[in-house]
Amino acid sequence: MIKFPDNFLWGAAASAPQTEGHSSSDGKSPTTWDEWFKLNPEKFNDGQGPQNTSNVYEMYKEDVANMPKVGMNSYRTSISWARLLPDGKNLNEEAVSFYRYYFQTMLDNNIEPIINLFHFDMPWWLMEKGGWENCDSVEAFAFYAKTAFEQFGDLVKTWSTFNEPLVHIECGYLYQFHYPAIVDFKKAVQVGYHTLMAHVCAVREFRNSNIDGKIGIILNVLPAYSRSDSEEDLKAKEAADLLNTYSFLDPTVLGVIPTKLVELLRDNNLTPDIQSTDKELIAQNTVDYIGLNYYQPRRVKAPSNSQHPAKMPSDLYESYDWPDKKINPYRGWEIYPEALYDVAIMMRDQYHNIPWFVSENGMGVADEQRFKGKDGMIDDQYRIDFMKEHLEYLHKGIEAGSNCFGYHVWTYVDCWSWLNGYRNRYGLFSVDLENHYKRTMKKSGLWFKELADNNGF
Ligand code: BG6
Fold first, then answer.
1. Residues 20, 170, 238, 360: which is the catalytic one?
2. What is the span of the domain harbouring residue 398?
3. Given 164, 170, 238, 334, which residue is catalytic?
4. pTM for the full model?
5. Which residue's CA is the nearest one to ligand 1's atom 7?
6. CATH code of the domain containing 125
7. Would 1 be classed as within a structural domain?
8. Measured from the CB, is residue 45 less than 6 Å from ligand 1?
9. N or C: which end of the chain has fewer CB within 10 A?
């Protein structure tokens, strides 16, 4: 039997915009998702917008009460910036009361709330001023963070600043899956830099506040594997890791931006505008822990036809189609559990074995109703197998000394997924959109309970 360390966190992750619903009511102001859906509804799967999502705003008591039934002892979700501070300055008392009840209900059910501040949901009032392109966004975010710590610091002891900062950078400014959906490498780097500084300033606010607890950041990790050991392929792998992995891990954990990344950006005319005090702020405000969302590796090779200076990341590294890959056909993502061991070792050896956890891992599958049994339960054995395989490699990493303190699955109750709407389902519970958002446990929920009860499998 595989046993995990004592007090291991077993739980799930989600976010405010993907679960709460009530997106344009109860005092909340619009985010880029609300506005983009108004502008371009055709971009969203089946016309499913951010309006109602999984209705947690009304159903949180039932949801939290169900968490122990699948063995969860912790849950990560986020606060909606546009709900808490609709104009960026003034508190929305309804939001304060909603979140206080929500978090208190978790505590009453012995669920540790892990609360994140930004999950791709840029308030529209700030987007109209340029969003993360505008350097004022840094202090606006720090003010929001400070407000959240003041309002909920007595209930929440584990905080994170951003979920997957790379995603709003690359999807918004390179690959067009998030608003403003433009293609501009230079702007992407500037947006990334302001995001990093917003994180750093939120950590500064946390350290200046008197609340106890810890603060971290949640990063998506796609460890790069090169096609071969040729010099060119290894150079591509290095560029991929510098831009995507070390770009946030190094400054947030070690307090420095990697010199090689600075050089790579300079060499490609991508250096962002910076303030003279930034270096010191980065050095002084490192995190207590890291959350890593792992779904798939990144296979890379040397670019076949690159431009210099680079116009896109593909001028520095190109995707490589590994012939032996195993794919989740619904999401199109490679399934490669072995990478979790490599990630664990990277955290041990490159990041002074800082405490970290798997903050998301999961499998999105379309049309899951096909697998519904007579009892109404979805038999998602594929998801159980997916989790087992990943946990085996994670466990190997822990045995080798990596300081991992938990595993969170994406997600708890099926939730809305950006442009993909409700196409791919990830939950331990299904949600019936035709029937008052009724939740029904899946077979994976039963398995997760056994896993958590035994602290292993
Ligand atoms: C993570 C995000 O990248 O993956 C979630 O933090 C997202 O917000 C999840 O929903 C699953 O990806 P997707 O695109 O299938 O929803």
1. 360
2. 9-454
3. 164
4. 0.98
5. 417
6. 3.20.20.80
7. no
8. no
9. N
